[in-house]
Design brief:
TIM Barrel, 27% helix, alpha/beta, 314 residues, single chain, disordered N terminus, 9 helices, two-stranded antiparallel ribbon
């Protein structure tokens, strides 16, 4: 994926349209206004679903992601290294369409699990929509309905975890928070699971400390847990462009309890973040699996997860 991750360092407000953020033992907690009393039950349900989906205690699995479908011919070689792959339901960042449409069946036959993705809105799009009279939470709910409909068309079972791709990093601005929470809530209300792909890179929080988007989402959501797919490619904690024989669990490697996937290497590498990484990228600064040719369809981003099917999409 090609991340923007520009810093958004203003302090998010404690309330967003359609939601309420209250305090529980000194911590802010998020819940839809109509269902805050059910937050505890939701946490238990999510935990149960994650266990059923294949997460193994203390075990992690290697996976890959990329914006473009790699082609049927590479699936056998790629599956020798990876248990699961990304799957875009709509156009990835900077693209006009998704090339993954209709590929779930062949990927499943090839043995892959899934990380199902929906590309979210940039802040400028949220502000533009507001000028036209649509608030960010409503836009999030509309996009959630489109994501669920796309997942159904692709044949994913109801209850699959769909990740919202949040491309901009740092603390979320109020409209970004409203959009993200509106999207996650609407996906869940439809009977699916909603997670967020976001940055785990620390940036200046404007008050002498640092913040990551992943930390901000965990803090804003509180006891209403949102599964996170966290992108952090700096070394450490990343090992660089290497497929580890014993991959690390995202939650322990990143210190984020809600992290279920860790994207630890990107293609091409980003010199501003990977200068301290081992010299294990290919000469063209991309990552490739063993036995996969070096070319435009062979490079991948690298991930580790607590399940061989992080979205439960098989």
């Amino acid at each position: 994926m090609r991340e923007h991750f520009s810093c958004r360092c203003k302090r998010a407000s404690k309330s967003s349209g359609g939601f309420s953020l209250g305090k529980d033992q000194g911590k802010w907690i998020f819940a839809p206004q109509s269902s805050r009393k059910n937050a505890g039950a939701s946490v238990l349900l999510i935990a149960a679903i994650l266990m059923v989906s294949g997460a193994a205690w203390g075990q992690a699995f290697n996976g890959m992601d990329r914006n473009d479908y790699p082609g049927d011919g590479l699936l056998g070689a790629l599956h020798k290294s990876f248990s699961y792959t990304s799957y875009w339901l709509n156009a990835p960042p900077d693209e006009k369409a998704t090339t993954w449409t209709g590929k779930r069946a062949v990927l499943k036959r090839s043995g892959f699990g899934f990380m199902v993705l929906w590309n979210g809105r940039l802040d400028r799009e949220l502000k533009s929509a507001a000028l036209k009279g649509m608030d960010a939470a409503s836009l999030g709910r509309n996009d959630a309905a489109a994501a669920v409909a796309a997942a159904e068309r692709e044949g994913f079972p109801k209850g699959t975890l769909i990740f919202l791709d949040q491309e901009e990093g740092g603390r979320l601005l109020p409209e970004q928070l409203s959009y993200v929470l509106g999207w996650v809530d609407a996906v869940r209300r439809a009977g699916w699971r909603g997670g967020v792909y976001c940055s785990g890179l620390p940036v200046d929080d404007g008050s002498g400390g640092t913040i990551t988007t992943a930390q901000d989402i965990e803090r804003q959501a509180g006891s209403w847990k949102i599964p996170l797919w966290v992108a952090r490619d700096e070394c450490p904690p990343s090992p660089g462009c290497v497929i580890e024989g014993k991959p690390r669990l995202p939650s322990s490697a990143l210190g984020l309890p809600d992290a279920v996937v860790w994207q630890y290497a990107l293609s091409p590498r980003r010199p501003e973040f990977t200068g301290g990484c081992p010299k294990n990228y290919a000469a063209d600064n991309h990552c490739y699996a063993p036995g996969v040719y070096h070319g435009p369809y062979g490079f991948v981003d690298l991930d580790t997860a607590a399940s061989a099917d992080p979205s439960g999409g098989r």
